[in-house]
Design goal:
Layout: E1 12-13, E2 19-23, H1 28-33, H2 40-51, E3 60-63, E4 70-73, E5 76-79, H3 84-101, E6 105-109, H4 111-118, H5 124-127, E7 132-134, E8 137-143, H6 146-151, H7 155-179
Parallel strand pairs: 2-3, 2-6, 6-8
Antiparallel strand pairs: 1-3, 4-5, 7-8
Length: about 180
């Protein structure tokens, strides 16, 4: 997988952030730029963070897999979901980031991120909306990946899922305030 990528895209952000966001893998624009969440999903994430009153500069943002896996689709590089083996191969990088940053909360953006953090396949709907504990983080939340919002075919669905995503982020900030 990594041989197709332009470069490794490591996490970045506040070294001792209270919140660490984990996505799936870099996308096309992230692969080209070398930074996480700078493409269309990143724009949705930034908008939602702003609405939830969270400053991205206070976060650490990374991905479960550090390389963009893709297949050609005409002139485009179409995203291809990473395999369980690829997620497991990159898990030590994520574990190292968690150990260095030591966030109070980890937020898994999508099922692949949750699979990496929990080291097993999980169902987003079963885990969304409450805090979970793992050996690497005491408080883990699971929500949708911003790219999932973009994939809804109807604008009403996109807006509804976006609102739910913002609510998830509000819930996480409330949780942090209560736990302080």
């Amino acid at each position: 997988m990594y041989k197709q990528a332009t470069q490794t895209v490591f996490g970045e952000g506040a070294t001792h952030a209270s919140i660490l966001l984990v996505g799936e893998q870099p996308g096309d624009q992230e692969d080209r730029a070398g930074h996480p969440f700078v493409g269309p999903a990143g724009k949705i994430l930034d908008k939602a963070l702003t609405e939830a009153g969270i400053d991205r500069r206070d976060l650490y943002v990374t991905n479960a897999v550090k390389h963009f896996k893709w297949e050609p689709q005409g002139k485009r590089r179409k995203h291809k979901k990473p395999s369980a083996a690829e997620i497991a191969a990159c898990r030590p990088w994520l574990e190292a980031e968690l150990q260095v940053v030591q966030p109070r909360v980890v937020v898994c953006l999508g099922a692949t991120a949750a699979q990496s953090v929990f080291a097993k396949a999980v169902r987003l709907g079963d885990m969304r909306g409450r805090a979970w504990s793992t050996p690497h983080a005491a408080s883990v939340f699971v929500t949708v990946h911003p790219s999932a919002i973009l994939r809804h075919p109807e604008s009403a669905q996109r807006e509804q899922e976006y609102r739910r995503f913002v609510q998830d982020l509000h819930h996480i900030t409330s949780y942090l305030r209560k736990a302080a």
